[in-house]
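Sample pair:
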Amino acid sequence: MRDGVVRNLNREYLSLVIILMIASVLLFACVQAEPDHPVNAYPKDSPSVYSKNVVAGTTARANWIIINSDNTSSFNVRTSIVGDTGTWNVTLTPATFMISPNSIVELNLFYKSISANMGESKTIEIEIDYTQITSVGVPIAYKETEKVSYVVIALAQTQVHGMDITIWGSNIYHLDLPDYMDNNIGRFILSVVLWIIVAVITIAIILPVAKLFTSKTKTKFDDIALGIIRNPIVYAIVLYGVVDSLSQLGIPRELQGWVFKGISILIILMISYVIYQIFKRVIIAWMVDKAKKTESKLDDVLVPLLDKLGTVAIIIVTVIYMLSYTGINVTVLVAGMGMAGLVIGLAAQDTLSNFFAGIHLLIDRPFEIDDTIMLDNGDYCQVRHVGLRSTRLYNMFTDNEVSLTNNKIANMQINNVSKPDRKELFKVEVGVAYGSDLDKTERILLEIAEKHPEVYMDKDTKPYIRLTSFLDSSVNYALWMKAKDFKFRWRAASEIRREIYVRFHKEGIEIPYPQRVVHLKKEQ
């Protein structure tokens, strides 16, 4: 164990030393090669003048990297070809452009010779003009000359015998072919067949081995993920094999590029589909499975939200990446989407307010599903559903379902009668006539409350009486007690009032009518 740790540490230290050495060399090279001007062109393939061979009848390319090392100024750059190019077809792009501070632009020179140029050597000279963009002082302006030399070595159409088998650009084997297959079509068919064999090997060996490992895990989601990527991997191998085999047909490279771009778009769509399926059937399914095992309702609401947002995000990223891959500038599109999002946000303030209020209710949890709450107006409602925009309630008095916006509920005083238990304190008020026996009255009230089956009592909780007021015609009492379940408090209160009336009538205790006694004093 200790030796393994030491070996790992030695590897880490060795890697660190190598990285530091490479960084030192690069830094030294940068210091030694510091340019005289802020903007300079550097050959992409060679540090000196280009000298290349070109096959007659084909198009080749030379590249330069133009670097603006200035931290503050931008430069206008204009490129041109010096002198006559003769029978050579030469194109320089881009012709004019602006380069920003601390940025890089690639300059491409495309050249094509004809068969008549066989063995000819040609030097092409390009001129690059730089002009600083500034509003202070005199702008910097200077020129730079780059040269490239070509030698035409052969005709484009040369006879090739057999087929080279390559891996990652390296020839590993030369395959001799019979005469009937030693042609472009034969080599193309054979190359496609070899790629199909690779796909079959993937299906028959690699994927089953992966399945063997995933079957030993406790979760089912890795098996689902493997099933999702199985067919797309095979399709991607075959499509790539078709593109790679096109070089055997001898078709122009421009056409090969278009075909490759089209198949690449198909592969991008395929990858996006795989990502969507993994997101939907693995990630979301795993989150739903976990949400079912928790008591919180927050995940039950957020998981569907993440499902919708993730789907939209995958579609948007796929579209943007495809547009960018095809050469369309998506900067304006992304900026427009940002502005559209700002406008939508301002126009949907109430909706967003309800959304965040819903998140607040789900996190704070003042109530849960099936809880009964009392609203500001005194209505008792059962919570049926808490959404991201509104909450649905069942009104127990009117037998109707009510939808209230989350923002309104979040700003409302909520009395959750289901917590901490379903018991609820309530009172029954009654008045007796002046001159009544108060001790007898209080004893009868307590007896009635204690005998009712819906009244909860234990050693700490019993009904009690409070004399609340002296009115014009009565002495008023409030009989307080706790119902076993708040749902039965109204029925219990009604039955207790009825029993009070019956007992008072039987015991001769008067419940007076509203009245006022007036005494007239006779003057002498």
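The radius of gyration is 44 Å.
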